[in-house]
Amino acid sequence: MAKNKIFLNLLLEKKIIDEPELERLIELYQSDAFEILMYLVNNKIEDKHKLGRLWGDSIGLSYVDIKKASFNEDVIKKFPEGFARKNIVIPLYQMGKAITVIASKPQNSFMIDKLENILNTQISSLFCFEEDIEEAINYYYSGFKNEEKNKLKGNSNNINMTNEKKTDLVNSQTISEEHKQHLLNNTRQIMDGVKKGEIPSADNCHAVSNCITDEILPKVDLKYCIKQLRINDEYTYAHSINTAILASLMGKSLGFSTSVIKELTLGALLHDIGFMKIPKVILYKRDKLTSEELTLKNKHPVFGYEIIKKIGLHDKIAEIALNHHETLNGKGYPRGLKGDQISLNTQILAVVNIYDSLISDKLNKKAISHTEALNIMMLEAYKLFNFDILEKFINLAYKNDIATLKKSFKITLFGDLTNE
To answer: Domain 66-146 has what CATH class?
Structure first.
């Protein structure tokens, strides 16, 4: 039974998709209408805001285009930042004692009740997509911190960005549609070729890498949240591109030379290419894999290494694919390497690979939030990652505001501290 039949019927009524496609998606996402919504958004099947309005109509709540909303900053200042980040919710305005909030899960009665207790007021909710709410949270709370810093310095001129400046900032730190399509088209060609038994063209591989290192990377301000520099598409292609972009950002932040950044970017792009040699019945199996199936799946780093060698790319690039599941504690695969046996580039990839995997929707796993992902990585860091690299990545992820993450990390460890 579908969890939101009204939304699914609206998709047919508005001719967003036809009935055979809806049946395919219902089977693929096990009748979870919200997962189907996010598939349609991520694959740009229809205008995002139109889909958002349809979802709002289906649950009886209004959808908000957050970039056009007029926020009451005084209300946001009263709202606990830790709660906002953990629950992906931000207040819009206050009328009397009631506060209206924008939430990615506005029907979460537990979250609403908890918020009413914290603020001692009535809460009503509107719907918006998670990534848009997180962008607003990052923008406003960072702005408040800048105001406080300026006050401490004796600067009485508050920094208030206009909507136009805000839009310029966001647009300058996201990937253009032209670059997205270039990256996706070439990556699909590489991956789909391997599925057909072909050896990918080195030129196609370099085309993707060069687009990232020559066109995208020079325009990136490393102080801006890396979460904006991701694309959403079919997981296989998007994950490869996202890890390549994140790896190149890490290379830039660590002061690597252009040639080393290009090697790192190519290695990240192709790290999972070996999955193209694994049967779909194993990759997309919903039930637990048998030991034989798991053994075959875990050979994808070796398959990737062999494919990259056949392409004729540098050994350092092939090595990244071979070792990207090795861990510092020696319990990774396929070779059980540990510590310094794992190259620095591979250690960088390990961090960005896990991060993007955690915050991405996959067939058998729902994405978790940006903050949750980083908290999990911090908890596991001593076993899996080079902590110096992880800390550098976290600073990038939080726009060099490590204090915000540390507060969230304490909430994860010790419970909700929003009443402080």
So the answer is: alpha beta
What is the Cα–Cα distance from 226 to 249, expressed in whole angstroms?
8
Give the CA dihedral 313, 315, 317, 319, nearest 10 degrees: 140
Backbone angles phi, psi at 289, to 5 degrees: -70, 145
Residue with tokens 């990737």: 304
The tens digit of pLDDT for each residue in 273-293 reads 999 999 988 888 878 899 999
Q: What is the pLDDT of residues 299-342, one digit of tens each?
A: 999 999 999 999 999 999 999 999 999 998 899 999 999 888 99
Q: Are 76 and 90 in contact (CB under 8 A)?
A: yes
Q: Cα separation of 416 and 83, whole Å?
A: 8
pTM of the model: 0.60
HSE-CB at 265 with a 13 A cutoff on CA atoms is 26
Residues 96-116 pLDDT 10s: 778 999 999 898 888 888 888
276-306: burial string, b at 16+ Cβ within 10 Å, e else: bbbeeeebeeeeeeeeebeebbeebbbbbbe
Is residue 370 classed exposed, middle or buried when 0-12, 13-18 and 19+ CB atoms within 10 A define those classes?
A: buried
**Any idea what the Cα angle at residue 104 is, between residues 37 and 229, rounded to 5°?**
80
- If you classify domain 174-414 with CATH, what class do you get? mainly alpha
Strands (E) in 3-145, as ranges, are: 89-95, 98-103, 123-127
Cα gap 37→392, rounded to integer Å? 34
The continuous run of DSSP H or E covering 291 comes out as helix 291-297
Alpha carbon distances (Å) from 274 to 270, 340, 354: 8, 24, 17
Three-state DSSP state, 416: coil
CB neighbours of 260 closer than 8 A, spacing ≥ 6?
251, 345
